[in-house]
Specification:
The chain is mostly helical. The chain folds into two domains: 180 residues, MFS general substrate transporter like domains (Growth Hormone, Chain: A); 188 residues, MFS general substrate transporter like domains (Growth Hormone, Chain: A, Up-down Bundle). Helices cover 81% and strands 0% of the residues. The chain is built from 18 helices and no strands. The longest helix is centred in the middle third of the chain and has 29 residues. The chain is globular and about 55 Å long. It comes from Bacillus thuringiensis subsp. medellin.
């Protein structure tokens, strides 16, 4: 039984990796895609921005729509849509067709990811759920850190089509593994849409949404400008910046593993300490960010915090509505996207008005707001886990 659950969680992680890989991998292919379709880089960047917009639109709604459908059916359906989109992208020479084939699967991205997190959490005991979720989050981190360099390498050494084929192969592998190893998973207790939407009338839900939005913005609002920060403030070479970005991603994976253990042992304490510790880290880094070695150390520690943060956010959102896991995870994805958008936008204004070095204060301010929301939730809705 334990082995079958491990296989299930592994397949979910691979599926999430394939979907995140498809999402993030295009970032490193924009110049090659621009040449391939003979369009401007700004136009081809629609493949990234519209993908993100589709996720933001679908995250609060589609996971709810699919919440009563057999889990295996949903997994195969979403993976099939991604595979079809991947294959069309390989062979088409028409940019509009490629864009449509890219955006349609994006709407189903939150369906698979939210369901994967829910299934992982419910496949084990409530106490062990954070560890199971953390393993799925490894797929998220791997998709973010490995996707870009792998497809970049394939596009540079071979062809763009070969790099696009990599997306398809990962999703095909997850599809086959799902067919062969995962049994039918009908939903045991189908919740009405009304009963799930009811969580939006509760204060604990909105305090959790705000906390997740601020905490995620505190990380990704800064991370979005990490390459520029290392260039402008730390004066690193492009080669070293690439290494630092990769190191951040690897540290992120370590953070996921660590988060699973921390949230299993003392979940509420972990959530409370997280923003305080990250605030201290940002404050300390501000004074040494022009030095290469302290910056490299910061990147490693921050990467670990980034991995922990994703798990902390998911736990906090999920624990606010444990009886509506799919909808709660959809709200988690929406909150994360909103936080990233707001954090990136405000940090961009700070860069233009004051300077790149000062974006750390955007992160610190967001952490203060997130911490306040966490404390308010704890005071108003007493948590039972230490």
């Amino acid at each position: 039984m334990k082995n079958s659950k491990s296989v299930l969680i592994f397949i979910l992680a691979v599926g999430v990796f394939g979907i995140l890989n498809t999402e993030m991998g295009y970032i490193g292919l924009l110049p090659a895609l621009s040449d391939h379709f003979d369009v401007s880089v700004s136009k081809v960047s629609l493949m990234v921005s519209l993908f993100a917009l589709a996720i933001a639109i679908a995250a609060p709604t589609l996971p709810l729509v699919f919440s009563g459908v057999n889990r295996k059916t949903v997994m195969l359906f979403v993976l099939a849509i991604f595979i079809i989109g991947n294959v069309i992208s390989i062979f088409t020479t028409n940019f509009t067709v490629a864009l449509v084939a890219r955006v349609i699967p994006a709407f189903f991205h939150p369906v698979y990811v939210s369901m994967a997190l829910s299934v992982a959490a419910t496949s084990v005991s409530a106490k062990e759920a954070p560890k199971a979720v953390a393993k799925v989050f490894i797929g998220v981190s791997a998709g973010m850190v490995l996707g870009v360099p792998i497809v970049n390498f394939l596009a540079n050494v071979f062809t763009l089509e070969i790099s696009l084929t990599f997306f398809a192969l990962v999703n095909i592998f997850a599809f086959i593994m799902t067919i062969v190893f995962i049994p039918s998973m009908p939903v045991q207790e189908k919740l009405s849409y009304g009963s799930q939407l009811k969580i939006l009338t509760k204060g604990i839900t909105w305090l959790s949404i705000l906390a997740v939005t601020f905490l995620n913005g505190a990380v990704f609002g800064i991370y979005s400008y990490l390459a520029e920060y290392l260039d402008v403030v730390t004066k690193m070479s492009p080669y070293m910046i690439s290494i630092m970005l990769f190191v951040y991603g690897l540290a992120n994976i370590i953070g996921n593993i660590l988060a699973g253990r921390l949230l299993t042992i003392a979940p509420v304490r972990t959530v409370i300490i997280y923003p305080i510790a990250l605030m201290i880290l940002y404050f300390a880094f501000f004074f040494v960010s022009d030095l290469a070695i302290p910056t490299a150390i910061f990147i490693v520690i921050w990467g670990v915090f980034g991995g922990i943060g994703g798990n902390v956010n998911q736990y906090w959102m999920m624990s606010s509505a444990p009886n509506s896991p799919d909808f709660a995870n959809g709200l988690f994805l929406t909150s994360c996207n909103l936080g990233t958008t707001m954090g990136t936008g405000i940090a961009g204004i700070i860069i233009a008005q004051i300077g790149t070095k000062y974006i750390l204060f955007v992160g610190m301010f967001a952490l203060v707001l997130g911490f306040i929301c966490i404390l308010l939730r704890n005071m108003l809705y007493k948590s039972t886990n230490a």
